[in-house]
Fold each of these.
Amino acid sequence: MRSREGAGRAPPLSALGLGKTFGAEDGRPVGVIGSVSFDLGEGEIVSIVGPSGCGKTTLLNLICGLLPPTVGSVLWHGRELAGVPPRVGYMLQKDLLLPWRTAMQNVTLGLEVRQVNRRERRAMAHRLLDRLGLGDFADYYPSALSGGMRQRVALARTFASDPEVLLLDEPFSALDFQTKILIERDTARLVRSERRSLLLITHDVEEAVSLSDRVIVLSHRPCTVVSQHHIDLPGDRTDMMAMRERPEFARTVRKIWTELDIR
Amino acid sequence: MTTPAVLPAPSRPSRWWGQPRTSRQRLRRRSMLQVALCQLLLLGIVLGLWEWGTQGAGVNAFLFGSPSVIAAQLLAMVKDGSIWADAWVTGLETLGGFVLGNLLGTVLGLSLWFSRFISRVVQPFVLALGSVPIVALAPIAIIWFGTGFASKLAMATLSVVVVALVVAYKGALGVDPDQVNLMRSLGASRRQIFRLLVLPASLTDIFAGLKLTVGFALVGAIVGEFMSSSEGLGHAIFKAGSLYAISKVFAALAVTVALALVLSAVVSRVERALLPWRHDFN
Ligand SMILES: Nc1ncnc2c1ncn2[C@@H]1O[C@H](COP(=O)(O)OP(=O)(O)O)[C@@H](O)[C@H]1O
Ligand SMILES: [Mg+2]
């Protein structure tokens, strides 16, 4: 086990020289991730943007322990863990709701896995669904909910296990603009009010800049970090429309766009 | 531009699907009635032509039977109670084989999900077993299990088990890998992933398999009865056939069809009760 001692506390999550090559065993290796290093601080929102197919999803799966890296390591509070780390929330573009469970039962899935008792599970789920404006829909099956509502249920499921670090992979990219802005705001509120850390993968530069404290830009495959931008927008960081109106916003978005090297 | 301070209240679902749903249902009910009427009409025409043909239009009633004689035959079978006795015996064999075969096949098929290695080892054997024509197994079943109930149960079970196994295994493998990853990210063990995700996700396929195998079980039972038996619908058909009592054959056949329909209807009912989410909203 490796650990990183040093000045101050270790960040909740750091990636050290992560790399992934697929298919090395059948002699046709495909390098997907070159070498990626970054830290995610406590209470920090970091977005990773990169061209399509550059390995963002793969990177998230490495961090989450769902795939083993070819080189490098992932540290949680300075320590390397085997397998899936505890207290992470993982969410994808697909809501992955189980159709045979009601909204409420989907939210409590992670608590059921951890064998939290039924009363507590339901209380937690009701609290989250209420906060996300879905209080009246707790007993609906997913097939009766709209896309935005379903993604909110998925968000509630992600927050239900009280994660310290959230790993979100393009969670809002299938939603229409208005729904997206609202759910981004809800996400920002849930993350910032409880000082959780969020790593958001997205191809939407405006979403990245309006939501995050820092944006990391990745190159084409095999991807490496091109640049990092600290986003210093004044005002209420959970107000997505207000963020988008600032002059610094447009400047930063344009800068990141040029670095993205979309071919 | 400003953001709304509160989420727009999502509209009440009862309102936005209530209206179109009832009118659609009304439409569906009407077309169902029309379909049923046409079906009755078609049946009437076929039976009418058949009766007319055998009443002197040159069709040999001895070889082809006739609806009126078949109906009389059915009535006689009801009166002497043989219809219930035979249907009961065959129904029991079918149901027993159906339950046993599906239980066995489903448990084996789902358990293969736990080990890719074992599933790859047994794959060719399953395929080989699946390609054996069930009729060819009847002599073996009779040698091993005798000429009574047990051999018919074995035949019905064998007709079901491989299909049930393949269906359950395919269902388990068809689970979205992203969904499995999500369960892993929630810290689920392999057993929890099975119980909370794989098993319920496979139920849709398993029930499709149940509908299919109810017929297979009946075929297995009837084939078993053909080979050697002293009761059951297969026995009645075989005996009547060897005596050239065509109307009796048709009568027993009609009872067999009715039995198949009843059993499928029961399976559909059970599916509706167990998988409510599949029927609630479409
Ligand atoms: N299991 C795998 N085996 C081989 N190649 C893979 C595998 N998973 C992903 N890839 C490849 O890695 C590349 C990056 O994929 P992905 O991480 O999904 O990109 P992104 O999320 O940035 O769009 C793609 O070209 C994809 O084909
Ligand atoms: Mg991706």
Note: Chain A has nine helices and ten strands.
Amino acid sequence: MDDILKLQNVCLTYQSDLFETEAVKDLSFSVKEKEFVSIIGPSGSGKTTILSLIAGLMPATRGEILYKGKEIKKVCENIGYMLQRDELFSWRTIEKNVFLPLEIKKINTEVNRSRAIELIDKYGLKDFSKSYPSQLSGGMRQRVALIRTLSSNPDLLLLDEPFSALDSQTRLKVVNDVYDIIKREGKTAVLVTHDISEAISLSDRIIVLTNRPAKVYKEHVLNFDKTLSPLKRREERGFSKTFNTLWRELNNE
Amino acid sequence: MNNLLSNERKRYLKKVKLDKILVNVTRILILLVFLGLWEVLARLNVIDSFLMSMPSKIVATIIELSKSGELGMHLTTTLYETVLGFLIATSLGTIIALLLWWSEFLRKVLEPYIVVLNSLPKIALGPIIIVWFGAGTKSIIFMAVLITIIVTVITMLNGFLATEQTKILLMRSLGASKLQMLYKLVLPSSIPTFISCLKINVGMAWIGSIMGEYLVSKQGIGYLIVYGGQVFRLDLVMASTIILCALAGLMYALVALLEKILIKKK
Ligand SMILES: Nc1ncnc2c1ncn2[C@@H]1O[C@H](COP(=O)(O)OP(=O)(O)O)[C@@H](O)[C@H]1O
Ligand SMILES: [Mg+2]
């Protein structure tokens, strides 16, 4: 399988009037097609910065980022970015929120719209498509946010701690839903989080970052049964062992 | 539907309704007591009705003014000046705010000028305005625009700039252009700001037009007030002030109606 995403010696330094902050330094890793990779690191370690770079929101100070072999220079059509909070527009209906990427990317065609509506129906939001975001629960809103990200049919999804704003009950359910949707739609995903068990329950592979400036500290390939849901994974024997290893790696530095 | 409501719910709704009625009744009572006291005290010569006028005389003055057709003339004059000043200032101010939102450079450059213009008492420019635009309607409208526009620019610009950063990030991650950012995100999310700006502007435009009329006019409600003061006809002053209150209230009500139409969906 080919690498869909490849980072080579990527560095990023933020400039401000008084000082500069080295957020990412010599970061290299790659992601294969349909793989689910989690990047974990303490907060402030540069995780959001890494995703912003891949999303093409700012250029790297040094190094290169390749999507399907081509360097990412600006925002790329085929990469979808899901933020920490749902960021739904309160003045738009659920359906209109989901159409937003189509409008922005100027691909608001009949075909694409009906594809988006299909996603809404398929993932249990049919009855709410004409509702406004304020009428939905936090978990449902996050699901809408994912469907919005999927509506323009990107291959690669970037997820920036998408569950951290949810309460712990809702969270387990939404993690399951999101995993299910991403697998069924056959997407590649890069998730950043500081939540170790979330990373283990979702990923095929976990990349552990060093403290700021971020670079790769360790990598773990997980070998859970592919048919297990994230919730079921938590009951597996390997789960707590992996958790302990990762916990030590994150805290012993 | 009604018989599905529980007893507690019915009691609650009843209480809400009662509270509302009580508030309204009290409001009207206060007004009536105030007017009644005023009238009685003036008639008993406890207060000087030459200086304070009294409700019955004020009503008589209003009736007299409207019979002679004068009221209509003054009223339309002032309304015309205020509404035109309001519309010009609101639209022009919003457009300027948009330009300033668009260009950070322009914003930085113009900031001190806006601050100075904002703190300057606009009435000080009265003589200049009269020299430039003549002692007539044009000057008055200009005064109304001047007073209203600066507030509009500042309020609307702050509204545009207060657009949530994370929503901007979302739009950027979708590859939105600046124009798309504007009409898909910044404008819709600034509607509440626009409404409160309209409400402020109603008051501002009235200040502007009345101030303008104090300075130059030969007609209008503001002129009536000044004239009444000069000839010591306090009934005229009071009558005009009350008409002004009614007009300002009416204009505010229109804006509130617009608000309901614009924010009906939430
Ligand atoms: N726009 C910015 N300008 C300057 N410094 C920033 C900016 N964004 C983030 N940083 C700094 O870079 C570091 C990494 O931030 P971030 O990528 O948000 O970390 P994380 O997502 O892992 O919490 C932090 O120290 C943060 O203060
Ligand atoms: Mg972050």
Note: The CA atoms of residues 103 and 109 of chain B lie 10 Å apart.
